[in-house]
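Suppose you are handed only two things: the residues of a chain and a line of SMILES describing flavin-adenine dinucleotide. What would the bound structure be? This form records exactly that question and the answer produced for it, so the two can be stored side by side and reused later without any lookup.

QUESTION INPUTS
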Amino acid sequence: MFSRRRFLASSLLAATANLPASRGFSAILAPSPVGIDRDLDAVTGAGKPVTLKRAAVQELGESLRGNLILPGGAGYDQARWVWNAQMNRHPALIVQPRGAVDVRNAVQFAREADLLLAVKCGGHSPSGKSTCERGMLLDLSLLRGVRVDPEARLARVGGGSLLGDLDHESMAHGLVTTAGTVSHTGVGGLTLGGGFGRLARRYGLALDNVRGVEIVTASGEILRADAEQNPELFWGVRGGGGNYGVVTGFDFNLHPMQRQVIGGNILFPLSQARQVLSFYAEYEGTAPDELYLSAAMASNSDFSGVSGVGFILCYSGRPEKAEAILKTLRSVGKPLIDTVKPLDYVALQRSGDSDEKRAIGSYTKTGFVKKIPPALIEAMVGGLEEHPERSTLVGFQHCGGAISRVAADATAFPHRGIHATSLLTVDWPGNADPAPHIKWLLDYWGRIVPHTDGFYTNDATEETQKQLDENYMANLPRLVKLKNRYDPTNLFRLNANVKPTV
Ligand SMILES: Cc1cc2nc3c(=O)[nH]c(=O)nc-3n(C[C@H](O)[C@H](O)[C@H](O)COP(=O)(O)OP(=O)(O)OC[C@H]3O[C@@H](n4cnc5c(N)ncnc54)[C@H](O)[C@@H]3O)c2cc1C
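ANSWER OUTPUT
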């Protein structure tokens, strides 16, 4: 969840280092193969080998308006791309649907062959849940597009869209909804699992703003789910991740907002870490909803040697109220760097974009916190101080506000009383051995985890099924019932999985 770019977007680092330019994340698309010349070796959801007959694959390809791409075919490497370069997997076949009917055809094919199936929107799953080895990859990148109805304050968003698409189109009408802090993250994964961002304290999670979805279920039905139609499914998709089907379209509520916000970072010397984080622990709960204020410490960041502790903020309230807030924040210590200024909201949302993860390795642990006691601050600062040579980013992403004012059972996302998400992340050069870095981070995380209360499923890495189940809290039985109804064979298993019991 808290990659360096996402957490520090337009950040401590950006203030001092030149970021690599984004290479762009949309695939260059290949035409469907004309004539399949071989059977394909693949695996089932349970990992058993299965052979896909040439004629059946050919028939699938002919049933699509979109593309079917096989290993070695044009566009294969681009289509199998995911953000975490450590997840270098090779699907047996890739379908790029152009609409819900293509999705249905692919889902039916995968179900009938009992195939392992991965669904990819933005491909940002840190644990590589949106790719697979020798299964089918459903790459939704052709389902990318946003149409805004300003009268109805509604955005109709294709299930393969990226957050930047949504911000760009809606803000042009003076309207917004909550989106995450890195614009090349997918709307699909982010929204179905939660959706934190700079406006979440004001407007709730991204999933709190969903008015309805079009979804293709495991049986191949194309359903509308909203407050009136299939309301139980609508409840489940808002927090249940990709467990119930492939969402081909989202309808989002939009809110009027000025284009200009106040954003940036205030960075203090790392020696003031305890002071700054103690202030943050007291202050964050009193902040207005319009203030998104995260706190972070960085050491040897990006291998550039940048170290510091500070605030990352976005204030979207009335400008005349900003000065008093900024004065308070600036007086916490002696700022080294202060980049806070009036900014275009869409530009701020893009300011953390990067594709650097392909050049470096990274490992992150996150957990929700309901308070930030002195012992947690000590554990965070102490852990960092012991290894200043590591490229580390740690801190708290601000939650609370409107996120907390929704009942825990109103949607499938139950973690409503949270004040912040705690984060630890370590980076290393792409060719280095990850093992010592990951081990170090896990040891460090061991000191933090006693202070956490659940985790964000979108950030889940190696959590056990028991941990995933517990994390759905009291909503689990209802989610399992829905899974039994809509996906009894667990076709959609590459996610924070709800296991069917039928
Ligand atoms: C750089 C970066 C920045 C991030 N910033 C934020 C942030 O600010 N706020 C925040 O809340 N989270 C953030 N995250 C975490 C983010 O929520 C998850 O990584 C999320 O999974 C990304 O969605 P995606 O569509 O890009 O992912 P993908 O990897 O494409 O998909 C993730 C999961 O969702 C499923 N899925 C995706 N789309 C669909 C669909 N249309 N229908 C059904 N299932 C689908 C996939 O099958 C998979 O299980 C960030 C992650 C990264 C790497």
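WHAT STANDS OUT: Residues 1-32 have pLDDT under 50 and may be disordered. The chain has three domains: 4-19+260-455, 40-74+84-142, 146-257.
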